[in-house]
Amino acid sequence: MDQLKPSSANSCPLTPLTFLERAAVVYGDCPSVIYNHTTYTWSQTYNRCLRVASAISSLEIGRNAVVSVVAPNIPAMYELQFAVPMAGCVLNNINTRLDARTIAVLLRHGESRMVFVDSQLRSLVLESISLIPPQFQPPILILIADDDDEGDFTPNPDYYFSDTYENLVKNGDPEFKWVVPENESDPMTLNYTSGTTSSPKGVVHSHRSIFIITFDSLINWSVPKQPVYLWTLPMFHSNGWSYTWGMAAVGGTNICVRKFDARVVYAAINSYRVTHMCGAPVILNMLANYPRARPLKAAVEFLTGGAPPPAAVVLRTESLGFVVSHGYGLTEVAGVVVSCAWKSKWNDFPAAERARLKARQGVRTLGLTEADVVDPKSGESVKRDGLTMGEIVLRGGCLMLGYLKNQEATSKCMKNGWLYTGDVGVMHSDGYLEIKDRSKDIIITGGENVSSVEVESVLYSNPAVNEAAVVARPDEYWGETPCAFLSLKEGVGPNPPEYEMIEFCRARLPHYMVPKTVVFMAELPKTATGKVQKFTLRDIANKMGALATASRM
């Protein structure tokens, strides 16, 4: 067989952009995007994306140039997930909750040549542009304007919007031949990490990795043809875990909402007969604790990730009719790569046990080559006893190319044939892994390792608790001890005494894991994707000073 070799016929570069082209043929007259009173079909979406790609290409900003988008989950945001790479550029979605200084840093670091800006965020972006030193070339600004303020540019003395998004659609070429990547390893996306534990880093993914993770995500979640998908997960968060392109692959209907609100979400579920949605555990919590929540008329598949969902939250949400699936992933792998593959025999278990099992991350998805939990020093696999903690490592075709302009950070996490995630977990005897914490979130008290996630799960089981986060507080005797930050459910009276929460935990946890400090807050600080900002809480705990606990022994 030596004479058989790859050819141009069987070596076409893999790219998820072909999904949209196919959707226009197979699902051409089916709804693709619904937003307020606007509905597009898949043929219209393909046409609009070609026109925008044509307009971007005509500006000659260069192949593989970075094009940024600062927008919520609106139709233009969805279209740009295709249009930017179809123009041969690298798509960079920016977190809409960042401040102007941080956005300026990202635009400079990525050398963004063009920025699409939602009309409600233009002052934020103009401020960020003004913070870029004059020696750097400012990017071209395009305004994504609402129908009622089309053409309202609000000029700046130095920087202004060159055009509106709809003008690009209107003037673009519908016959544009979109730019096929020369190589499937060409960069396609640039996403900056959320920065919950450290400074943001620019994660670069190729067309190939996005193609693989998109296919993998659809198969893993058993997404059928033509689902109705509600966008409660920000598209700027790892490109919506790849479901931006995935919905085109299966001809789904994308229900866009500008801002998450439990009332609006429940109304959308009922109005559009939503079948699928994604989000961090905080979204599950908000849906479960919505005072006017009622059981759903039909089941809704809900994929959660970003943090281990407390079993109590899973239990409450499923009682309303949501079918919760738990996945694990990170920006560096562009989506979910470990999930709790469900076994039919588990359906016979009590509800509490089912919820506990669903809180585990599970096993690798089909698109990932391997996942393991290893001793970070030796690199050897830890015991499969569900107790011995180690670092979660991954390998497979959906991994990032690396961090933009940061070879040191790339080499630090991608070594020995693995991606070292920085997440701490255990491996159970059945081969299912479970996250215990981020490595920086492990609390070491008196030589014992405390998983903040385990303590939080117990706190979530308290009927008065809405949100819970546990971090380390300095302690004069133990070095550090658990400090719990809590918000209470709507309607709960004055904050209960600190000792009541401590005793609640003492009855359910080993002594060394019990919080020694409890702080009540109206709401815990979070990133735009719903992750609790533990670095902020650690700062608060550190400013409290060391706790004198020797007398409490």
Structure characterization notes:
Residues 20-404 form the AMP-dependent synthetase/ligase domain. By secondary structure, the chain is α/β, with parallel strands linked by helices. It has three domains: 41-180, Rossmann fold (3-Layer(aba) Sandwich); 207-439, Rossmann fold (3-Layer(aba) Sandwich); 442-552, 2-Layer Sandwich (GMP Synthetase, Chain A, domain 3), CATH 3.30.300. 29% of the residues lie in helices and 25% in strands. The protein has 17 helices and 27 strands. Strands 2-1-11-10-12-13-14-15-16 form a nine-stranded mixed beta sheet, with helices on both faces. The longest helix is centred in the first third of the chain and has 17 residues, at 42-58. The chain is globular, with a radius of gyration of 24 Å.
Q: What's the gist of this structure?
A:
This protein has 553 residues and is an alpha/beta fold.
* Major beta sheet summary: 9 strands, mixed
Q: Structural class given helices, strands, pairing? A: alpha/beta
The end-to-end distance, rounded to whole angstroms, is: 74 Å
Q: Provide the gyration radius in Å.
A: 24 Å
What's the name of the CATH homologous superfamily of the largest domain?
ANL, N-terminal domain
Low-confidence segments: 148-153
> What's the architecture of the largest domain in CATH terms?
3-Layer(aba) Sandwich
At the first level of CATH, the class of the largest domain is Alpha Beta
How are the strands of the biggest sheet laid out side by side? 2-1-11-10-12-13-14-15-16
**Number of self-contained structural domains:** 3
Overall pLDDT level: 90
Tell me the quaternary state. Answer: single chain
Q: Give the helix level as a range of percent.
A: 25-40%
Strand content: 25-35%
| Record field, number of beta strands | 27
What global shape is seen? globular
Family: Belongs to the ATP-dependent AMP-binding enzyme family.
Protein name: 4-coumarate--CoA ligase
Pathway: Phytoalexin biosynthesis; 3,4',5-trihydroxystilbene biosynthesis; 3,4',5-trihydroxystilbene from trans-4-coumarate: step 1/2
Keywords: Ligase, Phenylpropanoid metabolism
